[in-house]
Amino acid sequence: MLVLRRAADNVAPMPPDDSIAAFLAEPRNAVVVGTRADGRPHATPNWFYWDGARFYVSTTRDRVKYRIFTRDPRAQLLVDDCTGFRYLMVYGTVDIREDLAAELPRFRAIREKHGRPAQSDEELLAGLEAEQRVLLAITPDGPPSSWNARGFS
């Protein structure tokens, strides 16, 4: 059953939540967009993991993205399938998580989803610390039925 979502000037058919979950489980990038201090957008492609409630993206403390979301937690994500002409666009709020040991399962999920070899907890944690990694936990502003989706049947 398709649910209809009304945008300001159109009506978009929404796929069932299970088709969204399947789409998000595939190894693909999410373009993460934040707002620079001068108001310009900052967009970067990133690996991500979706757990059904939040998107998780790994970044480092020396990246612009870290500084942006430290100042302003508003975000937009675009998950694209350029060959299948499908996409999801989601607005959300970023929580920066810096306790690497507590977030190991999510860092591991991102890596495994994208085909990176498994490491022991000790190896993974040492690598994350050496790279000064943090985890962006992005909570959507609404349920999948409120997201902008195209190309799903």
Please provide a written account of the structure:
It is a single chain. The model is unreliable at 1-13 (pLDDT under 50). This protein starts with a strand and ends with a strand. It is α+β, with helices and mostly antiparallel strands and 153 residues long. 24% of the residues lie in helices and 40% in strands. It contains four helices and ten strands, in the order E-E-H-E-E-E-E-H-E-E-H-H-E-E. Strands 3, 4, 5, 6, 7, 8, 9 and 10 form an eight-stranded antiparallel β-sheet that branches. Strands 1-2 form a two-stranded antiparallel sheet. It has one domain (3-150): Electron Transport, Fmn-binding Protein, Chain A (Pnp Oxidase, Chain A, Roll). The protein is globular, with a radius of gyration of 16 Å.
In short:
The protein has 153 residues and is α+β, with helices and mostly antiparallel strands.
Features:
153 residues; single chain; 4 helices; disordered N terminus; Pnp Oxidase, Chain A; two-stranded antiparallel sheet; 10 strands; alpha+beta; eight-stranded antiparallel β-sheet
SSE map:
Layout: E1 3-6, E2 11-14, H1 17-25, E3 29-35, E4 41-47, E5 49-50, E6 55-60, H2 64-71, E7 74-81, E8 86-97, H3 104-113, H4 121-130, E9 133-140, E10 148-150
Antiparallel strand pairs: 1-2, 3-4, 3-7, 5-6, 6-9, 7-8, 8-9, 8-10
